TrEMBL record:
InterPro entries: CdaR-like_regulators, PucR_C-HTH_dom, PucR_C-HTH_sf, PucR_dom. This is PucR family transcriptional regulator. It comes from Guptibacillus hwajinpoensis. Residues 466-524 form the PucR C-terminal helix-turn-helix domain. Gene3D superfamilies: PucR C-terminal helix-turn-helix domain. Residues 11-130 form the Purine catabolism PurC-like domain. It comes from the Bacteria.
Amino acid sequence: MLRMTSLTVHEVLEREHFSHATVIAGKGGLSRKIKWVHVMEVTSVKQLLHGQELILSTGFVWKDNVKVFRSIVQQLIQSKAAGLCIEIGTYMDYIPSEIIELADQHHFPIIVFSKEVRFVDITQDIHSLLIAHHYQMISDLEKFAQELNNLLLAPGCLYKILSYLAKKTDMQVIYKPKEAEPIFAPEVSKDKQETFLHFLTFQPDGKGLVVQHVQAMDYHFANLILVPDQHTSVSDYDMLLLDRSATAIAQFLLRELYIEEKKRALETEWLYDWLEGKHSEERILSYLVDFDESLIPRGLQVCTCKFTKQLDAYSSSQVTYFMLLMRSVFEQEGFFLLSLTTRHKLIIITLNRRDELTVMDRLRDAFERFMKSDILQKETVPDVEQIGVGKHVRLLKEMHKSYESSIETLAMNEKLFTQSSKIIYHADFHIYRMIYQLAKSKELNEFMHDYLEPVLHYDQKNNSNLLNTLRVYMCCNGSKKETAERLFVVRQTLYHRLEKLEELLGSDFMNSPKRQAIEFAIHAYEYLKRNV
């Protein structure tokens, strides 16, 4: 099979302008690739080259100095030049033996012209050849990409893409997904499969192989691997074929995920009944098995998403891609996601697949990665205003409790303005969860006045802020030194204020449980003050 490879020194030697040329050193390097041809007559060349240049020279700058000649050849070798062509007769009559030895040692081709040649003709010829070679490669890549697009429309397209890549590269292709069995194209025996997999196990970085990640939406789906044999080198063209094949497979996987996500969106009626607590634990588990046979949830949490616009202002594809991105991130942290939508918000059910002890840490890590995603910053997905994360429940039938707490989380944050983050956790509100519930009746206001009214009345009458001293003193766990520093007052002033607090609240105001009641009343006062 004709393979698309880079231009080599050996191929250049077959050109007409090299008919009187002889390779006098470095014959082991005739397979070196040539990316450009450069005429050079200077002594310092290292900083002028990028690598894989064929150098043309008359030898004028080193004609009488072997040391300079050796230095130039060493620089060319270090710069990974393709080879050196020298015109013999004009300024040089021969190549010193130590230069030949150096070139042979490094398989660096040195080519001499026995007759006068025009470098301009050589550069024009080889550059034209390189451009034609490059154009042919682009043309073939375009045909390859078109064929991949055609294969994407055919049934069983994944294996067809792998087979096509194997045919074009004339190499063994292995597709190794993260959570499924590998696919080999062409198919090989079980023994060969085990040999390849054994090699991959002990060479995870793909040494000896060419590995390309199949990746989309910040998620690594699989590895696409080329296995060259002992007599086959991997060319730049092969690498481009591999890259385009990985992209086509990623498109196929995204399409499959998109279809799956749309299918899940159609099953919202059952999920709404679950959200309202209408299903038993056994029925829920049976339902989840249809999604994934290995899914055995260890509790769940409901997340309620609010966007900057009403949800129906976004297209269904935008919401679908939002969920695809979220799913790709959260699955890596051990969560299985389900979703349903209302007019105003998106409800996400995160089913925990791993240890319950780490569920909150993993959930926070997943949200942090999700919010930093570049895709989330684009207009292709809905813009998140806030996401309320409900409490973790162990029984699946109690999902409604987690949902209610996620709604409560958003409401509490709106009342308190305590968190500027877009991700709000019910677990972070602590005592305010009780305050929020009590605030729905008159009991919270009455409780607050029972404990703080003397201090509030004193502050109002004297235009003071004794309540703040009380709050800071309790936050400092009764440390007078720390309290004075935080209030920026001298100790004597603080002592005077504490005496007044004892007079108003009683000398036992720092004793439990009275102290706990007063601390609760202070939080209640701050909550009520914000929501007058």
